[in-house]
Amino acid sequence: MILTNIESVPGHRVVEHYGLVQGSTVRAKHVGKDILASFKNLVGGELASYTELLNESRAVAEKRMVEQAQATGANAVINIRFSTSSISQGAAELFAYGTAVKVEKIPWK
């Protein structure tokens, strides 16, 4: 599966268009990590536990999007975007979406 955030795949042409595919996950913060993060806010620096949570969430949302694309027969997802939104205090959704297509390599002359 080819994944890209641009509107085409260099050296390939789109031969089938399957439409929008998406994947999402809703994650809640861990109370213990939240307490540690609040201390980190006092002194500054990266909130590593939140970074890890977002990376895991991105991977899950992307995997679900790819599974949906595979089910359509696509071999690529183009114009991929990620979005986040707050669901409730302490919980957020990470949403991945793109356009499922079938591409074929352009024969070089």
Q: What does this 3D model show about the protein?
A:
- With 109 residues, the chain is of the alpha+beta class.
- The protein has one domain (2-105): Translation Initiation Factor IF3 (2-Layer Sandwich), CATH 3.30.110.70.
- Helices cover 35% and strands 43% of the residues.
- The protein is built from 2 helices and 4 strands.
- It has helices at residues 31-43, 48-72; strands spanning 2-3, 12-28, 76-88, 91-105.
- The protein has a 4-stranded mixed beta sheet with strand order 1-3-4-2.
- It is elongated and about 55 Å long.
- The mean pLDDT is 87.
- Give the proportion of residues in helices: 25-40%
**CATH architectural type:** 2-Layer Sandwich
Q: Unreliable segments (pLDDT under 50, ≥5 consecutive)?
A: none
- In spatial order, strands of the major sheet run 1-3-4-2
How many structural domains can be distinguished in the coordinates? 1
Rounded to an integer in angstroms, the radius of gyration calculated over CA atoms is 18 Å
CATH class membership: Alpha Beta
Number of strands: 4
- Strand percentage lies at 35-45%
> Number of helical segments?
2
The helix/strand order is EEHHEE
CATH-level-4 superfamily name: Hypothetical protein apc22750. Chain B
> What is the overall silhouette?
elongated
Rounded mean pLDDT score: 87
Biggest sheet record: 4 strands, mixed
